[in-house]
UniProtKB/TrEMBL annotation, chain B:
CDD domains in alphabetical order: TM_PBP2
Family: Belongs to the binding-protein-dependent transport system permease family. OppBC subfamily.
Lineage of producing organism: Bacteria, Bacillati, Actinomycetota, Actinomycetes, Micrococcales
Keywords, ordered alphabetically: Cell inner membrane, Cell membrane, Membrane, Peptide transport, Protein transport, Transmembrane, Transmembrane helix, Transport
Name the UniProt record assigns to this protein: Oligopeptide transport system permease protein OppC
Species this protein is from: Paenarthrobacter aromaticivorans
Signal peptide per UniProt: none
UniProtKB/TrEMBL annotation, chain C:
Record-stated family: Belongs to the binding-protein-dependent transport system permease family.
Protein name (record): ABC transporter permease
ABC transmembrane type-1 domain segment(s): 98-317
Keyword set includes Transferase: no
Species the sequence originates in: Paenarthrobacter aromaticivorans
One Pfam family here: BPD_transp_1
Subcellular localization, as worded in the UniProt entry: Cell membrane
Membrane protein topology class: Multi-pass membrane protein
Record carries keyword Signal: no
Segments crossing the lipid bilayer: 12-31, 104-125, 137-154, 191-209, 256-279, 299-320
Keyword terms of this UniProt record: Cell membrane, Membrane, Transmembrane, Transmembrane helix, Transport
Length: 715, 320, 327
């Protein structure tokens, strides 16, 4: 590998005394990665520099396509052979780039270890968990005895919080939940006490409660091993509490680097400012519009001539288009660097909302009307959905019942948004499906726009209900038939109503404008749009028939942060303009807080707490709501470092094992702290949903003391 | 969200918006097919054989029923381009006829079995439950039956089936045993398609089921069906040749490539042209079909295009 | 596990019953042995023919249903699969025929499996290099060559070897030379008879395994768990060998179910071409002789072979894939 790259920008910076590479455990200089694709050479990573100090944590933040994962894979030497990598990656001063696969293997897993994103596919399905941990030990310690390795594996499993580790050694990955598998991945990564631990979106695929657990395990792992951590994420909240330094990447290049305080409290690059403004906050009732970043990241197969963010930057001037700005020091804060020629203008009072011209909070005609005076657009009365759990192939035996939805009642009034939140498996999606099915044979009553499912026997009634309610799906790609043009997608519901051709055409143009898409793009296919635009098409389709109620199933969870803000703003605006009501299911509580008026927290098929969103979020009464809210990381480093958090133990239990009394008792942090006499009540009686003011919750001991074991504070 | 595993996909995603040219999917597929030289060659060979089987009769004054008493069992000569059989029948005339029958069997069996499997598979997926279970049982029972025996019984029997020409009998029996695999594929594909959000969306809009099947399911299993059509042709041609070769498929007086090859096995040394010429034609036929299959599969599969190396010579220098 | 296998066997038994019954009806309504009797000299009267067939349980005047009941009754009460038009008992010859077939196939089944999987792994490791191209092209070539023609070409090849050497090294037909001395000469004779059919069935048999194994392995070389293994410190090749390879065996194990009956079908051709008096040849001959009971019995045998293959595949899958192990 080239040892003579003394003229790279990074080297110059080092000469200026801005880096101290001598102490760094990992230093990366001018890392460039290129891939060949059908459309030419893609320059995926364009000059990444950083130094990682022992025991410190670096957060790399960026959206999909920003090159953050490619960077980590390049460091690990795991990119395909076809990739062209240049620059320098040094581990304790030793150059790693250009090492053969075999030579690199001495470092991988012992000096530098990695935790990947998807725990479900990252473990080999045919080997036991113990086998896979022991393999990591064997590779680097060929002389270690079998007993010693086994003991070490048990120790590792215990360290990452796997109960009865000795027995679980013999378990196969499929016998573990996603969160447990991610723990195993961490155990494998720290098996040889690595000096550097790279975690690539380690919690993205997990539920918030499990995310909190896994982040805690990572924290423990770092404390135990003293390793330096590179945490790669798209979620500004996740790294706020963990990282010492942050590197924001955009279009393959770091655009801003600095300490965590620099980045969160004093961002100097419009993109970082936009990113921070684009994330809603779970901890404040501020209902300001989010900062939308229009447009999409550049095509990295084309040469970059100016600032890669310029096309999306509201501050861009001609100067921005000529020559790509290098990261330069921000005056007054050492080590804080931003790649923007207008860094100086962005100091202090600069406000992302003003810069990105975030729209004003839209006002709905219903805003002034008291809730009870508005009409009900949807009402559920004691809706149940039980699935029989069958066993046996020829003659099926019923071995139990899964109570996916167990006696749900709520209503939605005109112009309001109700969100259902809870972990995956709590029954929120089943609830949506039950409402969408709208069938007389359902258990319980669903009333939509005054029409009950009990009388919906003929297709005419059903058709009338379909006009009242439409749905927006989670995955914008899967929701659009790849063979349909946008025009055909939008025409389907209209033609189904028997609308004449000319009217269909007119309506489609109207819809395109409504959701902020160019009307002349109607002849394109979905794959020619970005994710955010596809979701807008999905929204346009739902609005085509002028429904009163729109059901939103995780409408923004598949989108990048900057794009997400635009879609949320659009939903806000449409609700106000068209007087829509929303029923939303979302796992991201920040989004829920931002968009909803009311919230219902579900656990194992039941609502455990419901009420006005601000009341519930500011003053949660049910222990589950408290734990759920506590699990959400906030993009505010000071707050994140000091706050207490409730870490629930274990996963959502199988609905089969639902206990007799309160079904949350098995994981309840309040229950755990109760004296035995009071515990008895939780175990035998089912707490009813009782109201206190506007808020309703199902708990005998609201606001109870939390068990100390489940409470964590990072000093 | 940032679920990145594949760096290339990651980049493709961000590029999606930049494509300004609107190209229909079928045109893309056609282009990709035409870019595959092997596939195009296969297509041309197949078309040539097809035309030959239709109009090849004009290339020779003889027909397959006329005996040339002056040229019995003669090798290729100006009178008979490909020689004659030991009965004095022009081989060219026989080949034209045999190719036609073989292609005909292939096209009919390939086409109809795709239809059957599409209808059967979609029905299973659409109704699900008991209907699906019963239909699946029937399907598996059919897979279990040794097709060759049924072919043999049907074409050798002395009973009522005797009145049908042997090629028709063979088509019927091959049809009976050719659709199960595809039907199963269609079933699982339709089942996964029914879970797609766009099908749900249509359902929630109140679009009638039959319209959903027609507008969303059928076009999306189309590529599978096209592929299976060409695969079915190859399979049927091969089956015809194999069965006729050991004497249980097409029977004289009907001729097919299999019959011609099979008949000639006894006299390979004395009348070699009678064996090698039809064998070559069969190879051209099945080979051209296989070449087309390959091209079609690549054209339909967006991930199959191989991506070259990014390492340029200069890049290598900096690394070393 | 045992319970699961028993249940699967039960389902297959029902299927075998149904396919065999269907086969019987097809055979009984199309095969008319009386037609052949007319060619005998002296030509028997129709009454004589009917009478002799009635004695064998092949009454041509009975309805298919009556004959089915009689045939089924014989199997259920006495395990008697009926008689041929010439009076022979099906049961008597069946075992010999199965033995001949099994002897013919067993070696090539094993060889095919081993060579196919090995070549699949090898060609996947050498993807797009010339070794891969040669091996995989060969497999595709085999796909467009009908089995009997392929066997016939091998036969021609063996004959020309014999002619070139000027001595009979290989026997291209038959199972053994009558009247051969036991001991060493018998063994040489055995090998000389086995070599050509086994060779033919093997070299034209592994293509399917090779292509499948290559594809499944390639599907897995970039899997997330291989990346994990590399991140532990295994080289790419070690990670593929220890992790991807093992996982890629799962679908291959499943596909065995569908190749065992395929080998059986291929066996018809092999027995026909190489004149081995196995079950396949027997069935083809029996159909030529309009023999309902033999045809049905061989059909039943084919179904049984399929069922055994399917159960074996289930069993193999549970061996290699812990996810489907029944707790």
């Amino acid at each position: 590998m080239s040892t003579n790259i003394s003229h790279t920008p990074a080297e110059r910076l080092r000469d200026a005394g801005l880096y101290a590479p001598g102490d760094a455990v990992l230093s990366v200089r001018d890392l460039n990665v290129r891939f060949n694709s059908e459309n030419g050479v893609v320059h995926a990573v364009r000059g990444v520099d950083f130094d990682l100090m022992p025991g410190k944590t670096l957060g790399i933040v960026g959206e999909s396509g920003s090159g953050k994962s490619v960077t980590s894979m390049a460091i690990m030497g795991l990119l395909p052979e076809t990739a062209d990598i240049s620059g320098s990656v040094r581990y304790k001063g030793k150059e790693l780039l250009g090492l053969s696969d075999k030579a690199m293997c001495k470092h991988r897993g012992s000096d530098i270890a990695m935790v990947f994103q998807d725990p479900l596919s990252s473990l080999t399905p045919v080997y036991t968990v113990g086998n896979q941990i022991i393999e990591a030990l064997t590779v680097h310690n060929p002389t270690m005895s079998k007993q010693a390795k086994e003991a070490r594996a048990v120790e590792l499993l215990r360290m990452v919080g796997i109960p009865s580790p000795k027995d679980r050694l013999k378990a196969f990955p499929h016998e573990f939940s996603g969160g447990m598998r991610q723990r195993v991945m961490i155990a494998i990564a720290i098996a040889n006490d690595p000096r550097v631990l790279i975690a690539d979106e380690p919690t993205t695929a997990l539920d918030v409660t499990i995310q909190a657990q896994v982040l805690e395990v990572l924290h423990t792992a770092q404390e135990e091993t003293g390793a330096a951590v590179v945490m790669i994420t798209h979620d500004l909240g996740v790294v706020a509490g963990m990282a010492d330094d942050i590197m924001v990447m955009y279009a393959g290049k770091p655009v801003e680097t600095g300490t965590v305080e620099d980045i969160y409290y004093n961002p100097r690059m419009p993109y970082s400012m936009g990113l921070l403004g684009a994330v809603p906050r779970v901890d404040t009732a501020n209902k300001q519009s989010l900062v939308p970043i229009e447009g999409t990241p550049p095509n990295l197969a084309l040469p970059v001539t100016g600032c890669s963010f310029a096309p999306r930057c509201p501050l861009a001037s001609d100067a921005c288009l000529h020559g790509e700005p290098e990261p330069v020091s921000v005056p007054g804060s050492e080590g804080h660097r931003a790649a923007c020629i207008k860094t100086d203008e962005l100091s202090g009072e600069a406000n992302a909302h003003a810069i990105f011209q975030a729209p004003a909070k839209p006002v709905s005609k219903f805003d002034g009307v008291a809730r009870l005076e508005r009409e009900k657009v949807l009402e559920l009365k004691d809706v149940k959905k039980h699935f029989p759990l069958l066993k046996g192939a020829l003659i099926k035996r019923r071995i139990g019942t899964v109570k996916a939805v167990d006696g749900l009642s709520f209503d939605i009034r005109e112009g309001e948004c109700l969100s259902i939140v809870g972990e995956s498996g709590c029954g929120k999606t089943t609830t949506l499906l039950e409402i969408m099915e709208f069938h007389p044979d359902q258990v319980g009553e669903v009333v939509i726009g005054g029409v009950s499912n009990k009388v919906a026997t003929d297709s005419k009634t059903k058709m009338a209900m379909r006009k009242e309610m439409q749905m927006v799906f989670q995955d914008p790609t899967g929701a659009l038939d790849p063979r349909f043009t946008v025009y055909e997608v939008l025409a389907e519901p209209l033609e189904n109503l028997g609308m004449p051709r000319a009217a269909v055409r007119k309506r489609i143009m109207e819809l395109m404008r409504l959701v902020g898409l160019q009307a002349d793009h109607v002849n394109r296919f979905p794959n020619q749009f970005s994710g955010g635009q596809r979701q807008r098409i999905g929204i346009a389709r739902a609005l085509a028939v002028n429904p009163k109620l729109v059901v939103l199933d995780e409408p923004v969870s598949a989108l990048d942060v900057s794009v997400q803000a635009g879609v949320i703003n659009l939903l806000d605006q449409l609700r106000a303009e068209l007087g829509l009501s929303y029923l939303m299911v979302a796992h991201d509580l920040s989004v829920v807080r931002h968009i909803s008026d009311r919230v219902a927290v579900m656990y194992l098929g039941k609502i455990v707490e419901t009420g006005d969103v601000d009341e519930v979020f500011d003053n949660p009464r049910h222990p589950y709501t408290r734990a759920l809210l506590s699990a959400i990381p906030v993009p505010d480093p000071n707050l994140e470092r000091t706050r207490e958090r409730i870490i629930l133990q274990g996963d959502l239990p199988s609905p089969l094992d639902a206990p007799k009394g309160c079904n949350f008792a098995t994981r309840c942090p309040v229950f755990a702290a109760l004296p035995a006499a009071k515990q008895e009540k939780c175990l035998t009686l089912e707490p009813p949903l009782a109201s206190e003011g506007q808020q309703e919750f199902a708990c005998f001991f609201p606001d109870g003391e939390i068990d100390a074991d489940m409470l964590v504070v990072h000093a | 969200m940032t679920n990145i595993i594949d760096p290339i996909a990651e980049i493709d995603e961000s590029r999606a918006a930049d494509q300004d040219v609107v190209i229909g999917k079928s045109r893309i597929i056609f282009r990709r097919f035409m870019r595959n030289r092997t596939a195009v060659a296969g297509l041309f060979i197949f078309l040539a054989l097809f035309l030959f089987s239709l109009f090849g009769g004009f290339l020779t004054p003889w027909d397959k029923d006329t005996i040339d008493p002056l040229n019995i069992g003669m090798g290729p000569s100006p009178d008979h381009f490909l020689g004659t059989s030991q009965a004095g029948i022009d081989l060219m005339a026989l080949i034209v006829e045999g190719t036609r029958i073989s292609i005909f069997i292939g096209l009919i069996v390939g086409g109809v079995s795709v239809l059957i499997s599409a209808v059967y598979g979609c029905t299973m997926a659409f109704f699900g439950g008991k209907v699906d279970a019963v239909m699946l049982f029937i399907l598996e029972a059919l897979i279990m039956m040794p097709a060759i025996l049924v072919v043999a019984v049907a074409t050798s029997g002395g009973g009522g089936l005797k009145n049908l020409p042997s090629w028709l009998l063979l088509i019927i029996v091959l049809l009976f045993f050719s659709w199960m695999g595809t039907a199963r594929l269609v079933r699982s594909l339709s089942m996964s398609l029914m879970q797609r959000d766009y099908v749900k969306a249509a359902k929630y809009m109140g679009v009638p089921s039959r319209k959903i099947v027609w507008r969303h399911l059928v076009p999306n299993i189309g590529s599978l069906l096209v592929l299976d059509f060409t695969r079915g042709i190859t399979g049927a041609v091969l089956a015809e040749v194999a069965f006729s070769f050991i004497g249980i498929g097409i029977k004289l007086p009907d001729v097919s490539l299999g019959v011609l090859i099979g008949q000639a096995t006894g006299q390979v040394s004395s009348f070699p042209w009678m064996f090698w010429v039809p064998l070559t034609v069969m190879f051209l036929l099945t080979g051209s079909l296989a070449m087309m299959n390959d091209g079609l599969r690549d054209a339909f599969d967006p991930s199959s295009s191989s991506i070259g190396r990014a390492k340029t010579k200069t890049a290598k220098k900096t690394i070393k | 596990m045992l319970k699961y296998l028993t249940k699967r066997s039960g389902i297959y038994l029902i299927m075998i019953f149904l396919t065999t019954s269907a086969g019987y009806f097809l055979a009984v309504s199309t095969l008319k042995p009386a037609v052949l009797e007319q060619e005998k000299i002296p030509r028997p009267t129709p009454e004589q023919v009917a009478a002799s067939f009635r004695g064998l349980g092949l009454d041509p005047d009975a309805t298919p249903w009556e004959r089915y009941i009689g045939w089924l009754g014989g199997i259920i009460t006495r395990w008697d699969w009926g008689r041929s038009p010439n009076g022979a008992f099906v049961n008597a010859e069946f075992a010999d025929r199965v033995l001949v077939s099994t002897r013919l196939f067993i070696a090539s089944i094993i060889l095919t499996l081993i060579i196919g999987v090995a070549l699949g792994v090898y060609s996947a490791a050498r993807q797009y290099k010339y070794q891969d191209r040669v091996i995989t092209s060969y497999s595709y070539l085999v796909h467009i060559l009908p089995a009997p023609i392929a066997y016939f070409l091998v036969q021609l090849g063996a004959i020309s070897v014999n002619e070139t050497v000027g001595q009979r090294i290989f026997f291209v037909t038959g199972i053994s030379t009558p009247g051969i001395e036991p001991g060493w000469p018998a063994f040489v004779d055995l090998v000389a008879h086995y070599a050509v059919p086994t060779f033919a069935m093997t070299i034209f048999g592994w293509a399917g395994y090779q292509i499948a194994q290559r594809q499944y392995l390639l599907d897995n070389v970039n899997a997330d768990f291989v990346r994990t293994a590399r991140a532990k410190g295994l080289t790419r090749n070690q990670a593929i060998r220890r992790h991807a390879l093992r996982v890629s065996f799962i679908p291959v194990a499943q596909s065995i179910a569908f190749t065992i009956p395929a080998i059986f079908t291929g066996g018809f051709f092999a027995e026909a071409i190489f004149a081995w008096p196995g079950i396949g040849l027997w069935s083809i001959q029996s159909i030529g002789l309009q023999d309902v009971n033999v045809a049905t019995a061989t059909l039943a045998y084919g179904s049984v072979i399929f069922a055994i293959g399917a159960i074996l595949a289930d069993f193999a899958t549970t061996l290699v894939d812990p996810r489907v192990r029944v707790q």
